[in-house]
Design a protein that fits this description.
Strand content: under 5%
Helix content: over 70%
Structural class: mainly alpha
Number of domains: 1
Radius of gyration: 21 Å
Oligomer: single chain
Number of helices: 13
Distance between the termini: 45 Å
Largest sheet: none
Order of helices and strands: HHHHHHHHHHHHH
Length: about 300
């Protein structure tokens, strides 16, 4: 019941944000977004998202191997595409990851470890994004620099919590064990590298959206905004990815002096590109369905023969 209530709150939260944006800006930014989205930008998003997916799958494999539930390269990429498609089409934005973790855990014979690998995959990726945002806010001279202490304080609190968990035992000992494993240089270094590659690719998709809209700003400012939007998009109150991302982007563009309406248009284009780029996940789902039906067709005669022998 609590999970259903939480899922409903996430859905309502996303709908509320979208409703407020439409009430505040009208449908103009949505019309503009559809007008400027081109096949060239879609192709670029497909390519860049493919690179990000490969990097994310690598990070997932590294973590899963450390937790004792290894994955194959091809299987991890296919599963990641499937989870991204489900995240982009179902409310909440996390159901695809939940499905990925459960399926991995069952296939590996350890449901708990499979779920933990997926959770750590998401958490570590978002932490690296936040760290890159702090670096950009401090290094790049932009109007957003004033927010560096706030983001840095939040990241510092997470670091302190991580250090505390790494020393705990008892009921949360499993979390502490996982943290110690992930902090090993051989594991942590590859996780950070994969996360940086993924973040760069997703930020590039955002810059494709910015270019399509025709925003005129310095590369440093746009890169910083891209990182801020990626971090803000992690808020799990959305409708298939839509909602907080649009509100956050509009707010960040306003803070940067680029106009909130422009930011909303960019966010809509980004959302369209990100959603279309997950279409390979649909192909994975269709392939799963075909394979399942073939297995059932193969097993059915065998079962009938066994039942006939048993009388």
């Amino acid at each position: 019941m609590s999970r259903r209530v939480l899922a409903l709150l996430r859905l309502l939260g996303g709908l509320l944000v979208l409703g407020v944006l439409v009430w505040r800006f009208g449908t103009g930014p949505f019309d503009d977004a559809w007008r400027v989205t081109t096949w060239g930008s879609v192709a670029g998003a497909l390519l860049l998202t493919g690179l990000a997916t490969v990097a994310n799958a690598w990070r997932w494999r590294v973590i899963a191997h450390a937790l004792g539930v290894p994955l194959t390269p091809a299987g991890s990429v296919a599963a990641y595409y499937r989870s991204q498609f489900l995240n982009a089409t179902l409310p909440g934005g996390v159901l695809g990851d939940a499905h990925r973790g459960v399926r991995h855990g069952r296939d590996a014979g350890d449901l708990g470890a499979g779920l933990r690998a997926t959770v750590w995959d998401r958490v570590t990726g978002q932490l690296v994004q936040a760290a890159l945002l702090v670096v950009a806010l401090v290094v790049v001279p932009t109007p957003l620099r004033v927010w560096a202490p706030v983001v840095g304080a939040g990241l510092g609190a997470v670091a302190l919590l991580t250090a505390w968990l790494a020393r705990r035992a008892g009921s949360i000992g499993v979390v502490g064990d996982d943290v110690r494993l992930l902090l090993r240089p051989a594991v942590g270094g590859r996780v950070v590298a994969a996360s940086c590659a993924s973040t760069a690719a997703h930020a590039a998709v955002f810059l494709v959206a910015v270019s399509a809209v025709g925003v005129d700003a310095s590369p440093g400012l746009l890169a910083t905004i891209a990182l801020a939007v990626l971090v803000g998009s992690a808020v799990p109150l959305n409708v298939a990815g839509w909602g907080p991302r649009e509100g956050i982007t509009a707010g960040i563009f306003a803070l940067a002096g680029l106009g909130s309406s422009t930011g909303l248009t960019v966010s809509i284009v980004f959302g369209v590109l990100a959603a279309v780029a997950t279409v390979p996940g649909l192909l994975v789902l269709l392939a799963d369905t075909v394979l399942r039906r073939r297995r059932k067709a193969t097993l059915s005669p065998t079962r009938e023969l066994e039942e006939a022998r048993r009388g």
